[in-house]
Amino acid sequence: MAKKVLVFGEVRQGELRNVSFEAIAAAKQIASGGEVVGLLLGKEAESLANTMIQYGADRMVIAEHHDLESYTSDAYSQAIMQVILQEKPEGFILGHTSIGKDISPRVAAKLRAGLISDAINIEVNVDQVSFTRPIYAGKAFEKKVITDGMVFATIRPNNIQSLEKDESRFGEIASVNVEIKDLRTIVKDVVRKATSGVDLSEAKIIVSGGRGVKSKEGFKPLQELAELLGGAVGASRGACDADYCDYSLQIGQTGKVVTPDLYIACGISGAIQHIAGMSNAKVIVAINKDPEANIFSIADYGIVGDLFEVIPLLIEEFKSVAVY
Ligand code: FAD
User: Fold this and answer.
1) Which residues pair with 4 in a beta bridge?
2) In sequence order, what are the residues at sequence separation of 6 or more whose Cβ sits closer than 8 angstroms to the Cβ of residue 157?
3) Which atom of ligand 1 is the closest one to the Cα of 306?
4) Is 2 in contact with 79 (CB distance < 8 Å)?
């Protein structure tokens, strides 16, 4: 049966995150020929609304209240609830990002709806929507079927293919007035960490360093390799704890969960907590001087050797073929 599905567009530093487009593709599948309505909140909503339509949303609802300029779960959940009550969608899809993880349980509780979080695949069979999601830190997968009520889910970035951008698509963009009251948190200032290059959680290629990198300086060849490949640098908690890099780079159970096309693990032993964050990468390459290191058990390609000898060779080789 055709459904109306609402999709939350997530904006970061003035740009829509790719997972918003992946969420539109997921919503299209669930809508089964019904309507996909995009939702954008905050000051960039109007300028970005058309992009969501070009990626497949049929129409957009935007709200630009001044309390929505910076994300707070308090203000955003009030705005989202008002749009849901007005639109009455049969589905609601968000990215499984920091914001998605924060806002979705709050909205689900208010709606008294079930929530499926961190879905990596969706199947629609007649009227039944089923979601696949990793459990036990990625060691197993479970399939959840929604048989009743709202189809409410967060999707893991980089798992569901977004649709091709079609610049000829157009649709209605409706601005709604939302009432925001009794805020318990007000953001006065946002101080961003200075980061450059590709966003780690959406990167297609990640070069990740562990305690084997040995120092802050030791991360330089990894950075060079990542830049050459158009990728991002990640790290194990071992490297972060040793202060070789910032915790914002940590991948794993208590860090970021990533699904790149290529993950190059350098000097990382492959502890279960690290694997939980990267085991779904499409191709895993491990560089480690210990042939018994656990990371080799999940790697597609293993290089037993000193990373400080192997990485410069890879850089030299990639420069000579200049594929990227
Ligand atoms: P190590 O285990 O010390 O491994 C270093 C590796 O480098 C070794 O295999 C060694 O052979 C290799 N090496 C050394 N020198 C070289 C060289 N020159 N060339 C090539 N290889 C070399 N960890 C995470 O990563 N992410 C998490 O989110 C996370 N969450 C956790 C949550 C909890 C509750 C707990 C208890 C732990 C968590 N950990 C997490 C920590 C995890 O258990 C490991 O301690 C950590 O992943 C180890 O990091 P590492 O592989 O860099 O270091």
Assistant:
1) 35
2) 17, 18, 19, 22, 95, 96, 97, 201, 202, 259
3) 19
4) no
Q: Does domain 200-320 have CATH number 3.40.309.10?
A: no
The stretch 65-94 carries a mean pLDDT of 96
Spatial contact of 152 and 90, defined as CB atoms under 8 Å apart: no
DSSP assignment of 183-225 equals -S------------SS-GGG-SEEEEE-GGG-SSGGGHHHHHH
294 C-beta closer than 6 A to ligand 1: no
Quick one: CATH architecture of 4-177?
A: 3-Layer(aba) Sandwich (3.40)
Give pTM, 2 decimals.
0.85
Residue 230 Cα, ligand 1 centroid: separation in angstroms? Answer: 25
Closest CA to 41 of 31, 26, 52, 32: 52
The 10s digit of each residue's pLDDT in 207-254 is 999 999 999 999 999 999 999 999 999 999 999 999 999 999 999 999
- In the predicted model, what is the mean pLDDT of residues 184-205? 82
| Closest ligand 1 atom to 253 CA | 28
Ligand 1 pocket mutation pick from 200, 215, 257, 268 by most atoms within 8 angstroms of CB: 268
Listed by start position, the domains of the chain span 4-177, 200-320
203: Cα separation from own chain's centroid:
9
Would 4-177 and 200-320 be classified into the same CATH topology?
yes
Q: Return d(Cα 235, Cα 318) in angstroms, integer.
A: 22
What per-residue confidence (pLDDT) applies to 270? 97
Q: What angle do CA 274, 225, 276 make, to 5 degrees?
A: 10
**Is residue 105 within a helix (H) or strand (E), and if so which, with residue range?**
helix 98-111
